[in-house]
Amino acid sequence: MSRDDLLVLVAFLIALAATLGALFIGEILGQMPCTLCWYQRIAMFPLVPILGLSTWRGDGMARLYGSPLALAGLALAGWHSGLYAGWIPQVIAPCTKDGPSCSGPSQSILGLPIPYLSLIAFVAILACLVLLKGKRK
């Protein structure tokens, strides 16, 4: 297995873990995601088949197809993390007071809030894609 194949596999496993984690939180635990979480899911979920197929085929297309989604997810996760940390005023938050929220104590895994975990996942996936040498077969 080459270095590029390993990087794409790691990116795939991160995307898969994030997707399964989001589905577990929503479908098994029954916790509704907030608006920003939904948007981040829109960017994360397609990364699983894109990176999985690129891993399986070894075609080197992971960067081309995965980077735009990873960048969009990173921007959303950065915005969400900024809102969570209080760096961005709540006045411009897309979530309503009556809707689901990611700020409760039950919205953390291993002591990290869900917005931060999403940010870490997108940074790691993007780092794997950036480190690819980019040779297509």
UniProtKB/TrEMBL annotation:
Main location class: membrane
Protein name, as recorded: Disulfide bond formation protein B
Membrane topology per record: Multi-pass membrane protein
InterPro entries referenced in this protein's UniProt entry, alphabetically: DiS_bond_form_DsbB/BdbC, Disulphide_bond_form_BdbC, DsbB-like_sf
Keywords: Chaperone, Disulfide bond, Electron transport, Membrane, Oxidoreductase, Redox-active center, Transmembrane, Transmembrane helix, Transport
Pfam families the record matches: DsbB
UniProt keyword rRNA processing, yes or no: no
Species the sequence originates in: Hoeflea alexandrii
Family membership: Belongs to the DsbB family. BdbC subfamily.
Membrane-traversing stretches: 38-56, 68-88, 108-132
SUPFAM superfamilies: DsbB-like
Subcellular location field: Membrane
